[in-house]
Amino acid sequence: MGVKYKVLSADDELWSRENIRRMLSWEDYSIDFLEPACDGEEVLERIPEEKPDIVITDINMPFISGLELLDRIHSEYPDIITLAVSGYDDFQKVKGVFMAGGIDYLLKPVGKEQLVDSLSKALKTLEEREAEKVVKEDNRLRDNYVSSFLEDDEFSSLLNGKLFRPGKESHIPSTKAFSEMSTILVKFHDVEVLKQSYNKDVLRMSYDMKRRLRELIDAEKAIVFNYTDKVNEFIIELNATPARLKFFADRILQTFPIESQGPVTIVLHDRASSLDDIATVYREMIAELVTRPFGCGHSIITCSSDRKAPKFRGRYTDRIENQIAGSIAGGDIRQAKNLILDTAGLKRCDVENWSLLEVTQFTTRIINAIATADHSSDNRSYEEVQDAINYGLRTLNKDIILENVELALLIAGGEGAAENSSISSQVESVYDYIGEHYMEHLTLSELAERFYVEPSYLSKKFSQKYNETITSCITRCRMDRAKELMKDENNKLEVISFNVGYDDYNYFSRVFRRFEGISPSEYRKSLI
Fold it and tell me: Whole-model pTM?
């Protein structure tokens, strides 16, 4: 729903107070009409607690006159909009109202049309103020986001060797101040979850995630930056003991639970070094990261000189490869599937503690073996399968990997053409589903999971077929339905906003204006 403004009315005469109260259905204007006040002193007592946006006051009241009240409000609470009511058509008092900051002057007995007109002015002023605040805050935050990104870019240049680019001035702080630092690498594997959490605003995501990480480590001289080449990786440089590093790692994982964030890997590099060595440190940490157990759980890895190199089993042997090739050549796809999933044990990779590196190497060799054994299919089909498997590897999602290994076997078995061409019907199904469920919270990853398509592949095919993104399609469906509902004057705009899938009317209004070029209220007026 949109912003609900508060109105406080003041009059020493009961009938006048009740007349204002009953004159309008205040809820229809998204206004909370507060219990009227009896005089100006009561208004001043109640303002700090009740925080009205609009004050309607009689001019002739005891103790504190209406003009005095207006002057006090204008001086002490300049954001409050004031309207004055009087039974006298007195120019000096009218002048006094405007000099005291009031925006309108109403003569008793106040008529409904007159009150509505004055309130419209007041509400318009409030909405314009809110819009200005939003713009200022957005600009302030955007400046912070951009500044933060530029800082990240400078630190990231230390990792990828581009620090001394011609014509580029470096703003990296002196490394002397950071000569005895340990390093923490925080990697969020499910990038889709990370992006959706911030409505795909990478700058805001980066800024906010760094803020949260700084709060968690609470170290004054720590450096926290987002590696700009990999938006899901954050680097923390700080002076801490190995025990303290482990404490911070546990604290970070507790703050980002798997249920809401997906799996996170933290790599700790406890050997003290300077920023000059961060590229080497980073490479060592990435090499250790792939040794993490494959699966949807969190993981903490320590990268230190006395850590023994992990031992990997030979998951993929020549014997397995020859058996798979023979099964495919003989058309026995079921046997090939059993060899991969059961005999070699890919379907148990998470419970049998396969490392990420082992699953990566195994699946790569499997797809290559299947493609080599299949002499009838276009290799592009297997490239698409490998892309989907890579997504499963990045997100540590075993189900995506198993589904696409089976898809590769279907292609090798001669069913690949039908499966591959079925993407068109799958995209059509996604389009139809959006048409029926646009008011729900839909994301690319959820739609891809529902229709068994790799997200980036679905996005590409959908855009090619309908010349719009999935997000644009959802928004267009919502706006079309909103316009239909606006034809009925009994449907309040805030209710329409909620019905088509927005719980924030202001956001709905901004989206509507972007699509239609005018606000929802202006569009409704054009219908009338």
Answer: 0.61
